[in-house]
């Protein structure tokens, strides 16, 4: 029988111990284009973040225990492995060399690139006629400063174990892919000061194959830029030997485009723009948004964002006809073709009440699709096994902001626990944890997260704010953050919190709202407390390795993001005043709300000294501030002990700040 108790005091079986450290993540799905066997990359926090290549159906590990299948290309990595005709090729981040190994059990791996830790490789693609040739990104850190790191495309001869330059001149490259007959190569590229979602291009070239017994290579000719200028073009794939597909945001929304090789003509696949994004920000090279699912290359399954969740479409690439496919998955990443003869495709899928899994979908001539999980436990992100009745179902809400009713997108999770019928206090509204996603060009999605359920099963509401600048809502919404970071995100979080607390929503207690964020989200948290239109909206806050000093961040960041800050904040290397104006470290004296600071002691992005300046300043003024420094942790907590302590410490801090424990108050 359900009981009643005040919100925020409910007992929950979801403990920090059970949901931290021991779980794994699935980072990518890989399909052998010849054998159609599905593999995935599994991240293991319990093994210091080691990433392992797994055969999905059997759960068998393909690489040795001393291998970490990751890459540092673009710093965030991804696209670190490919499997072709039973041979796996992968980057081992331990020495940054590329290796090959047969997927047969007991096989020994061998390096196929020279020994050089300064060279980083990613985005491999085998030539279809001579698969010994592998096209790849090479990121050269021999002179390791943001302005001197060099990105190129190269050819790796996997037999001769040589690396030959192929394409150079752009600041960044992504997704080089041979046409099915091997006569063409296409790739994405962009230059500073752009990020790939700002302005990027696609080029195509003719390929001449030069084969010999000792060494094979190829040359390119007739290099042509084929995509629309002045916008973002990305996530390219060959539908067939005559049709190249990608997504483009020239209409204001990311929609599918195609290029006809014979006609040398590019254009949108849809007859008129669709006001949905068919792709996201390319932080990771592996998060592909569609799959070609028939042998002729005429049909694709595409994902699109709608109201903060994913919908799937069957798209006729020739006619532009699109029809929605019924699907339970609200988060879909890494879409790949499995078998074009049977219409099968695979992806990482998450439901609102089920964790991420490797999913195989099948689509026929109709608009319906069937979905199944791969059978091995290794194909599931291993984590706690709680009863689904504990899960609260999120609601995507588009708030109307006065005076012009501008839209502000949020995801609201109400408190829920089957052991409780609700509050025991008449008229009580729940306390609310406002979460600020990172990026800041990111997006909070609606897939199951046990860390959110940790709070909702205790009687807290949870609010994810997809503030202006978040992707998934069109280019105009994403561009709201242009020169506005530290203002737009801060004010949107405050506005969302206030609107949810009053009529007509009245979902949360306006006096018991707390805010939390990590990294760039931590900047928003600190800005809300110190440099905003209302520094007293939040009853308490937590900054997890939050950015405090934007001037220092610009000086220390890596090549991929070295110009990103100027589009977010404004200014220039010669004019850092906008960065000083937005840096919370310069407004610490205005923080008058309880603040918890969680920090790693070897963090290079946000050095502990910055966190300690904030802590000491508040403490000196007699303010309420607590600080925990975790030994051996960098920018992001990887150790189970740290993750567990941080979550429990944050709960304890809010319980005291909000007076949820009798006789205990900060």
Q: Can you offer a commentary on this structure?
A:
- It comes from Lentinula boryana.
- Residues 448-659 form the Peptidase S9 prolyl oligopeptidase catalytic domain.
- InterPro entries: 6-blade_b-propeller_TolB-like (IPR011042), AB_hydrolase_fold (IPR029058), Peptidase_S9_cat (IPR001375), Xaa-Pro_dipeptidyl-ppase/CocE (IPR050585).
- With 666 residues, the chain is mostly beta strands.
- Helices cover 14% and strands 35% of the residues.
- The strands form nine sheets. Strands 30-31-34-33-35-36-37-38 form an eight-stranded mixed β-sheet, with helices on both faces. It has a four-stranded antiparallel β-sheet with strand order 2-3-4-5, with no helix packed on it. The protein has a four-stranded antiparallel β-sheet with strand order 6-7-8-9, with no helix packed on it.
- Helix 4 (488-501) packs across helix 5 (520-530).
- The radius of gyration is 25 Å and the shape is globular.
- It starts with a strand and ends in a 9-residue tail after the last helix.
- 52% of the residues are buried.
């Amino acid at each position: 029988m359900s009981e009643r108790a005040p919100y925020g005091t409910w007992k929950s079986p979801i403990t920090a111990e059970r949901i931290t450290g021991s779980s794994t993540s699935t980072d990518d799905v890989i399909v052998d284009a010849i054998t159609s066997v599905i593999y995935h990359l599994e991240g293991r926090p319990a093994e210091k973040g080691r990433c392992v290549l797994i055969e999905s159906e059997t759960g068998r590990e393909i690489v040795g225990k001393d291998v970490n299948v990751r890459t540092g290309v673009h710093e965030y990595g991804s696209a670190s492995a490919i499997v072709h005709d039973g041979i796996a090729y992968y980057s081992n981040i331990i020495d940054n060399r590329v290796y090959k190994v047969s997927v047969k059990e007991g096989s020994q791996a061998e390096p196929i690139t020279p020994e050089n830790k300064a060279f980083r490789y990613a985005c491999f693609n085998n030539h279809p006629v001579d698969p010994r040739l592998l096209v790849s990104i090479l990121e050269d850190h021999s002179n390791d400063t943001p302005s001197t790191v060099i990105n190129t495309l190269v050819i790796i001869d996997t037999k001769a174990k040589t690396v030959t330059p192929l394409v150079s001149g752009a600041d960044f490259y992504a997704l080089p892919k041979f046409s099915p007959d091997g006569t063409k190569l296409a790739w994405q590229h962009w230059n500073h000061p752009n990020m790939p979602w700002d302005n990027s291009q696609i080029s195509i070239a003719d390929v001449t194959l030069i084969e010999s017994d000792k060494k094979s290579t190829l040359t390119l000719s007739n290099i042509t830029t084929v995509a629309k200028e002045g916008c973002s073009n990305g996530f390219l794939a060959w539908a067939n030997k005559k049709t190249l597909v990608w997504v483009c945001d020239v209409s204001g929304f990311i929609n599918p485009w195609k290029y006809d090789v014979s006609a040398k003509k590019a254009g949108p696949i849809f007859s008129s723009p669709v006001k949905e994004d068919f792709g996201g920000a390319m932080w990771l090279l592996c998060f592909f948004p569609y799959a070609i699912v028939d042998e002729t290359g005429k049909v694709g399954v595409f994902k699109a964002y709608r109201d903060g969740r994913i919908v799937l479409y069957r798209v006729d690439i020739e006619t532009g006809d699109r029809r929605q496919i019924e699907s339970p998955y609200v988060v879909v990443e890494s879409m790949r073709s499995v078998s074009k003869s049977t219409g099968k495709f695979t992806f990482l899928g998450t439901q609102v009440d089920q964790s991420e899994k490797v999913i195989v979908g099948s689509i026929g001539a109709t608009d319906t699709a069937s979905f199944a999980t791969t059978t091995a436990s290794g194909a599931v992100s291993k984590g706690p096994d709680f009863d689904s009745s504990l899960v609260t179902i999120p609601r995507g809400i588009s708030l109307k902001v006065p005076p012009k009713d501008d839209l502000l997108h949020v995801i609201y999770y109400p408190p829920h626990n089957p052991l409780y019928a609700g509050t025991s206090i008449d008229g009580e509204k729940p306390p609310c944890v406002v979460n600020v996603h990172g990026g800041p060009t990111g997006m909070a999605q609606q897939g199951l997260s046990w860390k959110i359920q940790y709070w909702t099963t205790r009687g807290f509401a949870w609010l994810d704010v997809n503030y202006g600048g978040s992707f998934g809502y069109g280019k105009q919404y994403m561009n709201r953050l242009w020169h506005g970071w530290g203002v737009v995100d801060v004010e949107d979080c405050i506005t969302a919190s206030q609107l949810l607390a009053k009529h007509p929503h009245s979902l949360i207690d306006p006096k018991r709202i707390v805010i939390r964020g990590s990294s760039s989200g931590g900047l928003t948290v600190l800005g809300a407390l110190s440099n905003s239109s209302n520094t007293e909206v939040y009853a308490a806050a937590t900054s997890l390795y939050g950015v405090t000093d934007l001037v220092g961040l610009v000086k220390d960041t890596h090549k991929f993001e070295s110009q990103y800050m100027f589009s977010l904040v404004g200014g220039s290397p010669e004019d850092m005043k906008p960065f000083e104006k937005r840096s919370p470290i310069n407004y610490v004296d205005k923080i008058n709300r309880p603040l918890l600071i969680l920090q790693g002691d070897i963090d290079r992005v946000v050095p502990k000294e910055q966190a300690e300046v904030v802590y000491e300043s508040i403490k000196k003024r007699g303010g309420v501030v607590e600080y925990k420094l975790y030994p051996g942790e960098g920018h992001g907590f990887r150790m189970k002990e740290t993750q567990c302590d941080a979550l429990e410490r944050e709960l304890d801090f809010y319980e005291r700040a909000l007076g949820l424990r009798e006789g205990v108050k900060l």
